[in-house]
Specification:
The chain is mostly helical. The chain has a domain at about 1-80. The chain is built from eight helices and no strands. Helix 3 packs parallel to helix 7 (about 145-165).
Length: about 200
């Protein structure tokens, strides 16, 4: 039941994101969405994925987006309604849902992963890799290239955001020179004298 509650809550947050125009509210809703996804992963016993989602999705991503708001406006510009992107998203979602129809049920003991891969990890990870923690063995060795790819993606995203933030340079206020200040005072004095002379 808790799976459905979390999924419904995520759907509600996603709808709020789509309708929200205040960028600060969007950032906060993104953080709530990521944190809810992390909770869902914990309930599904994927603690390693939940930790990554909480740290990257609800943590550093939220901080970077809030920092980016300092360089932009707080309101999103009015967007024109386009049918083509909606069709692309709908078609992609339908294909993804169709692809999950052949997957085994969640927790099915007869699933292929429980017939060969998982028993191999449980029985031989300590001898082949070394750490007593099977999750550590999987992430650091059996799925080492996958973990390296995830780290590269996160690093590239953070570097790109930092580069974009570094391009912003606030305009320096020009300090008037003494000559300009003297000219401004003379001009002000002349105007005041002219107004005084023209007054009855």
């Amino acid at each position: 039941m808790i799976h459905y509650v979390l999924l419904i809550f995520m759907a509600v947050v996603a709808l709020g994101l789509a309708r929200q125009r205040n960028l600060f509210a969007v950032v906060i809703l993104f953080g709530i969405y990521s944190f809810t996804a992390a909770l869902l992963y914990v309930v599904m016993d994927a603690v390693d994925v939940a930790f990554t989602e909480a740290a990257v999705g609800a943590g550093i991503s939220t901080v970077l987006m809030v920092a980016t708001l300092a360089l932009t406006s707080t309101e999103e510009k009015p967007a024109t309604w386009r049918v083509c992107p909606l069709l692309v998203v709908t078609l992609t979602g339908a294909v993804l849902i169709y692809g999950t129809l052949d997957m085994p049920r969640y927790g099915d003991p007869s699933a292929p992963i429980h017939q060969h891969v998982a028993p191999h990890y449980i029985e031989k990870s300590a001898a082949e890799v070394g750490p007593p923690n099977i999750v550590t063995s999987v992430l650091a060795s059996y799925r080492g290239y996958d973990t390296l790819g995830e780290v590269i993606v996160i690093f590239t995203a953070a570097a790109g955001v930092l580069v974009l933030l570094g391009r912003y340079r606030p305009k320096k206020r020009r300090v008037p020179s003494r000559k300009d200040q003297a000219v401004a005072r003379k001009t002000t004095t002349r105007k005041a004298a002219a107004r005084k002379a023209s007054s009855p």
